[in-house]
Amino acid sequence: MTLSQKIFFATFRPLVKICFSWKVEGRENVPLTGPLILVANHVHVVDPILLVFAFPRWITFVAKGELFHSLFLRLWLRWAGSLPLQRDGKVREKQRILAGARKALEEGLILGMFPEGARSHDGKLRKGKPGSAVIASKTDVPLLPVGIAGTDKVHGISWLWKRPRIVVKIGKPFKLPPTNNRISKSQMQSLTTQLMCEIAALLPPEYQGAYERRED
Predict the structure, then answer these.
(1) Distance between CA 163 and CA 21 in Å, rounded?
(2) Is 57 exposed, middle or buried (0-12, 13-18, 19+ CB in 10 A)?
(3) Is residue 212 one of the residues assigned to a domain?
(4) How many CB atoms lie within 10 A of CB 154?
(5) What is the CATH number of the domain that holds 128?
(6) Which of 26, 100, 142, 202 could form a disulfide with 173 if both were Cys (CB 3.0 to 4.6 A apart)?
(7) Could you tell me which residues come within 8 angstroms of residue 144 by beta carbon, excluding any fewer than 6 positions away?
(8) What secondary structure does DSSP assign to 75-138, as a single string?
């Protein structure tokens, strides 16, 4: 963590505590050193902010390329070390993201990803995209699942005094089967489902959405 990042933590941590009624569960599951791929559900723009303050280490997020079009956001994201992702599906773009992810992980950083690919506007977990699973399988780096519940109630202006309860639940690291070969679509789907089920297990039933566990 850089000096400016430490100053950022010290300056804004009290403000986050004032603005949000939230708690973090499972912080002991975060390894203090070594590369890690954080995967979480995504409901609100505040999710990355809460994750940053929930973790004892800095998180390098993969952010959609559109955010870099704004001068202010571009400066902020570059300061934070975020990796831009152009969601056009081209092979060259996928290779670029994989190379950037490899570099960050080789430096022992935490790479933060939202496998749904976009925010869920109803709070329920959406079908996952294969990118996170492919990167984890190609790099043989542990995944750390995180479930965020309650940020769907942060809207309008009334949340400032209602202060809805938010829970950030951190699971235990796990690995997907490593591969250096081309991953088939069926393998991608299987790996992605495994990853998303780990996230779903950390969420209340009403947030599990596409990965809701049903009793037989």
Answers:
(1) 6
(2) middle
(3) no
(4) 21
(5) 3.40.1130.10
(6) 142
(7) 29, 30, 36, 37, 38, 39, 110, 170, 171, 172, 173
(8) HHHHHHTPEEE-TT--HHHHHHHHHHHHHHHHTTPEEEE-TTSS--TTSSPPPPPSHHHHHHHH
Task: Find tokens 């499972």 and name the residue.
Answer: 26
CA 120 from chain centre, in angstroms, equals 13
Q: Which two tokens stand for residue 120?
A: 């869920």
How far does CA 67 lie from the centroid of its chain? Answer: 16
Q: Quick one: which of 128, 201, 106, 121 has its CA closest to 154?
A: 121
Under the phi-then-psi rule, with left for phi > 0, alpha for psi from -120 to 50, and beta for the rest, what region is 164? beta
Are the CB atoms for 85 and 174 separated by under 8 Å?
no
What are residue 9's phi and psi, to 5 degrees?
-60, -50
How many domains in the chain?
A: 1
204 CB-side CA count, 13 A = 8
Q: What is the pLDDT of residues 36-87, one digit of tens each?
A: 999 999 999 899 999 999 998 999 998 776 766 676 777 777 877 777 776 6
